Every structure is written in structure tokens, then in C-alpha cells.
């Protein structure tokens, strides 16, 4: 394997490991934060944690606030590294089959521009498929919003829970511009 490819492989795997370490350290920090948050809420009056055990509150808090993106980005990078060599081999077989079936001239032989174009976009497509799969799983496994999860743990029907989400400043400005009530 050429040295440049090995270096790229090591850099990508190092980035994946750093993302995993970041996720793990954040989970450790959030676990401590969850314990202190539960203790503080219990001291104040406990209405916000009434009926929720410390372990359950910790699980909900960590799952709602952890940087899941780092875990899935590491998985996408590792998947891209793992899929590269099989994808290269598959693309070579596909190119040769298409070239043979079409009876193409030597202009379409490996090493020329049409082949380079096919290989480049084929590999980029394989890597994009890894990112797409990681994103699909990331969004499919998204945890419940923190306040709704606490309400569910307390036994309240989630449909009755009103979670206030402040509108971003840009949305308020856009609404003012749309209705013509912009500040002069």
C-alpha cells in the first residue's frame, strides 16, 4: 500500500478515535452533572423530579444531552475506511464489465480520464453512502426531548405536556418583516 494512502487511513482512524474519546468524556461529565442536577432539584422541592429515581433521571439527562453526533461521525468515518477497498475492487469489476460489454476502445481503459471520473465519483458515492447510513440511524434513534422524557417518567401523558420552545431571533425578525411590522 502506498505511504500516502496509509497516512490518510491513519489520520481518518485517528479522527474516529478522537471523536469516540470526545463522546465518552462528555458522557462521563454529563453523568456527574446529572447527579448534581438531581440533588439540586430534590433539595429545592422535588416537584420536577417527583416519582423519578436518581438512576432514571441520570439516564434521561445523559441521553438527552450527550453529543451523539460524535459517536455517529466516528462510525461514518470507520465505515468509509472499511468500505474503500471493497468499493474500489467492485468499481474495477463493474468498469471492466461495462467496457467489455460495450466493446469500448482503449480510451476507456483504466488510467484514462473516463475511468478516473468513474472511480472518483464511485468512491465518493461509497463514502457518502456511509455518511447517509450514519445520519439515518442518528435521526431514527434520536432520544426524546428532556422535559417530555421527565414528564413521561413521572407518569404524565406526553400529549398533555407543553414544551415551550422559544422561537429563534431570526424567525421573529422574519415574521416582523413578513407582516410589515418591522421596527423603524
Could you walk me through the main structural features you see in this protein, from its secondary elements to its overall organization?
- Keywords: Membrane, Transmembrane, Transmembrane helix.
- The chain crosses the membrane at residues 6-25, 69-95, 115-135.
- Helix content is 74%, strand content 0%.
- It is an all-alpha fold and 184 residues long.
- Helix 1 (3-44) crosses helix 2 (54-65), helix 2 (54-65) runs antiparallel to helix 5 and helix 3 (68-102) runs antiparallel to helix 4 (113-140).
- The model has no long low-confidence stretch (mean pLDDT 88).
Task: Provide a compact summary of the structure.
The chain has 6 helices and no strands. By secondary structure, it is an all-alpha fold.
Strand residue content: under 5%
- Poorly predicted ranges (pLDDT <50, ≥5 residues)? none
Order of secondary-structure elements = HHHHHH
> What would you call the shape?
elongated
Beta-strand segment tally? 0
Structural class: mainly alpha
Cα radius of gyration in angstroms: 26 Å
The helicity comes to over 70%
- Report the major sheet: none
How many angstroms separate the termini?
65 Å
Q: Could you report the average pLDDT, rounded to the nearest whole number?
A: 88
Structure annotation, total helices? 6
Characteristics of this structure?
184 residues; mainly alpha; 0% strand; membrane; transmembrane helix; transmembrane
